[in-house]
From TrEMBL:
Database matches in Gene3D superfamilies: Acetoacetate decarboxylase-like
Lineage: Archaea, Methanobacteriati, Methanobacteriota, Stenosarchaea group, Halobacteria
Top-level lineage group: Archaea
Protein name, entry field: DUF2071 domain-containing protein
Signal peptide (from-to): none
Length: 244
């Protein structure tokens, strides 16, 4: 059951692509006050394309909708476990400005094309079934001035039965996170809280044709194939950030 938080939205058409990495790789890129969270000894870097829909303060009849692409990792902080975002690319000038100002998150402007969502039919390529009803084509190109540019181009689709992550499982570690941390320009650490029902996930398949997010954020591209999950649409609420 969602609480009475300040901001509400819906997340849909989401792919969670995660690569296991050495914890030292992640630790070197974290601000002071955060440490690496691991599962069975591995840290993880995640690439998450999705659509944020109808983002608005409670009581406002209409909100913003735009695609987002983020690179994230998982951390332990002063307020407990959470997500740390290395970058967030969004195709909405106002949304980027608001997120940078109110949430102090590293949002960057991008040009993004999303086709073949669950609502409109398939658009698969490569190893993904082009006729799959839920296939999504997500192509993003960062155009924000003053930061390294980044590209991501993939087609993805669900490829199995729906499930809810079990407590303590790897999917729960990767997805059941209700807190995020961010650092201001002075290095001061902030924390934000979100709320939603447990994720409904499905195994996924993806054809990732371009992904330069790792290099743009100072990481070497991880070896091996990612762990893939397709996320069903979910209603989310969020609060303003506060000092951690």
């Amino acid at each position: 059951m969602l609480g009475r938080r300040w901001l509400e939205m819906t997340w849909r058409d989401g792919l969670f692509a995660h690569w296991p990495v050495d914890p030292s790789t992640v630790a070197a890129a974290l601000p002071d006050g955060l440490s690496v969270a691991t599962h069975d000894g591995d840290a993880y870097l995640g690439v998450v394309p999705f659509v944020m829909e109808d983002i608005r303060p409670r009581g406002v009849p209409r909100g913003l909708s735009f695609p987002e692409l983020n690179l994230r990792t998982y951390v332990e902080g002063p307020n407990g476990p959470g997500v740390y975002f290395h970058s967030l690319d969004a195709d909405d000038r106002l949304g980027v400005a608001v997120a940078r100002g109110l949430f102090r998150l590293p949002y960057y402007r991008a040009e993004t094309d999303v086709r073949g969502t669950a609502a409109s039919g398939g658009a698969g390529q490569g190893g993904v079934d082009a006729d799959a009803r839920d296939a999504v084509r997500f192509a993003s190109r960062r155009v924000h001035e003053g930061v390294p540019h980044a590209r991501f181009d993939a087609t993805y689709a669900p490829a199995g039965e729906a499930f809810t992550p079990d407590l303590g499982s790897l999917p729960a570690f990767l997805l059941e996170n209700y807190r995020f941390y961010t650092a201001g320009e002075s290095g001061r650490l902030y924390v934000g809280e979100i709320e939603h029902d447990p994720w409904t996930l499905r195994p996924a398949e993806a054809d990732i044709r371009a992904n330069t997010l790792f290099a743009a954020n100072g990481f070497e591209a991880p070896d091996g194939d990612p762990i893939l999950h397709y996320a069903e649409p979910i209603a989310v609420t969020a609060d303003r950030i506060s000092r951690a």
